[in-house]
Amino acid sequence: MEKKQDIRRLWLRKILKIYIYALFVSLGIYLVFAFLDPGLLSYDLRAKFHALAADTIIVTARALDPPVQPVVTGTAICNQVSGTLQIDLDWADDVNTYNYDIDRDNAPLVSSLINSSYNDGVVIVATTYSYVVTANGPVGPGFAISVPVVVTTPGVCEITAPAPVVTIMSFVGRNIDSYNGTPRVTHRRPLFTGTTSMANATILVTVGSSFIAQFLANSNGYWEWQPPYGVSSGSHVFTVTATDPSDGTRQATASLRFDTLKRDATDSSQKNDSRGNDFLTPNAPNQSVPLEFTLSVDESVMQGEQLHTKIVIGILKERYSQITVPIRYSVTDEEGTIIFGETRPTSIEAEKEILETFPIPLYIASGKYSLQAEVLLDTTSISRRATFMVQELPLIRLSSGESIAYADIIRQLGWIVFFVLILFFLWLAMFIREFALYMQGDREVTEYDLKRAGYFRK
Fold this sequence. Notes:
By secondary structure, this protein is α+β, with helices and mostly antiparallel strands. The chain contains five helices and 27 strands. The two termini are 21 Å apart.
C-alpha cells in the first residue's frame, strides 16, 4: 500500500515538474520571438521600453516654465460687405510661450506665430475644418498641444475670390516680427516659411542671383523652403512669388532682406553646408525655371513592398540636357516629418521618363504619406510632391478577397495569451486544491483505510 502511494506521489510530482518546465519554456520562446521578430510586435515592445525610459528622464528632469495648453475657440464668419469668408481662431496669451504652430486637418497651416489669434481665409463654404494649436516654449523642447477645434463654415455665403497674398512668416525658426531690423544669421542654410491665400499655389523663390527654386504650397497655403546648400556671406534679398494654379494672372510677391555673417572655416556646420562632389558648379540663374516635370507614384503600397515612382520631364533648357544631376527623394508623413530620404544621381533630358523604386520598411505604420522629388540644377531646385497610401501587410488572404494583417494577429494574440493565462491559473488553483486534499488524506487514517488493511473482519 505504501509503495502504491509513493508511486502516485512520484507521478504527481513528475507531472507538476513537466508542466512547470513547459510553462517556462513557452514563455521564454514567446519573449525571444517578441524581441527578435522584425515586425510590429518587437517594434511595439521596444517603443514601450523607450517610452518608459523617456518618461523616467522627464520625471527626474527639471522643467522650466512649460507652456500652458491653449484653449482655442473657432468662429466661421461670412462678411457680406467685403465678400469674404474666414474662420477666426483665438486663445489666451501665455508668457511662457515663445511662438505658436497651427495645423489644419493634420497639415501645417502656419508656423512661428507670435500672436494668440489667427484668421484663416483659405476656406470654402459648407466645409468642416479641424485645427490644432501647438504652443512652443522658450526654453528647451517644451510645448503644449491644444484639443482639436472643429469649425464648419456656413452653407451659403456670397463671397468674392480673396486677393492673392503671400507672406513670409518665419526665418530660421523665428517669426519675422521678432527681429529688430534686418535679420542677421550665421546659418548658411536658413529655413523660410510662410503662407499664401491660394491653396496648392505654385511657389517661386529666389535669393538674389544665387538661388532659384520652384515648388508647390500645400492645400492650406503653407510653404517652406531651405537652400539646397550654403548661401555665401553678405547681404541677400529673398523673394517669393505665389501663383494661382487655376489662374496664372493671379500672383502675389513678398521679399525679405537678410545678412549672412562670416564664420570660422573649421565650423562643422559649414562643412555640412558644402555641396560636395555630387553637385554642379553654381552659376547665376536667369531668374526663370529651366525645368518642368511631373511626378507620379503608386496610389497604395503594402508594408515591405516597393514604391514605384515616375518622373516625366517636359521643358528642359538645352544646357542641362543629358547631364547627370542629383535628385533628392524624401518620404514624409501627414505631419511633415521626414521618414526617410535618399539622393540619386540621374541623367536627364527632355521628354524622358525616370523610373525609380523605393522599399517601404515594415516598421512604417499604415496611413497617408507624401513623396517629394527635388531636382538640383546648379543653383536651381525644382520639386514636386505626390501622395500615396501605405497598407498593412496581409498575413492571410481569404477566398472572399478579405485579408488578415499581421498587426491584426498580434492585437488578437494579446487577448489569446490573456485568456490562456487565466485558464492556466484556474487549472493551477484546482490542481493545488486537489493536491492539498490528497496530501491531507495521505496523512489521516480513516475507517475505510483500516478495513482495506484487514483490521476489521466481517
